[in-house]
Amino acid sequence: xxxxxxxxxxxxxxxxxxxxxxxxxxxxxxxxxxxxxxxxxxxxxxxxxxxxxxxxxxxxxxxxxxxxxxxxxxxxxxxxxxxxxxxxxxxxxxxxxxxxxxxxxxxxxxxxxxxxxxxxxxxxxxxxxxxxxxxxxxxxxxxxxxxxxxx
Length: 151
What we know:
Blueprint: E1 8-13, E2 17-22, E3 26-29, E4 41-46, E5 53-57, E6 63-67, H1 82-88, E7 97-105, E8 108-111, E9 117-120, E10 125-128, E11 140-141
Parallel strand pairs: 3-10
Antiparallel strand pairs: 1-2, 3-4, 4-5, 5-6, 6-7, 7-8, 7-9, 8-11, 9-10
């Protein structure tokens, strides 16, 4: 999907006001996110001077704070199945941008390492992928001050 470099889309957010997002930063989730199949287009908006991003639905107010998993777990790696890679237009694993959702649990920031977000900038396709074959936690503490993230 070819996108002009100077094309932008405006998203009205109830929490962040009007977001002006380059079209190249809008990703299509064919199956939506886990538990949210109706939301399929999301904009990826960086928070300036931080490692965090906002993943905001193009329609509606749904949004998530996301971040690179390598910042919380140095050796966070997994295989992307060939069928999934093909559906995302992913030719080489290094083309993918992997992010994890940040949640607040019991006033502590945690990340979901079990179901990362995989984005492919070249195709602008994305998915949330459950790592069934890996023993990553759904709630992993973010930072040294967070010792646990209970349910």
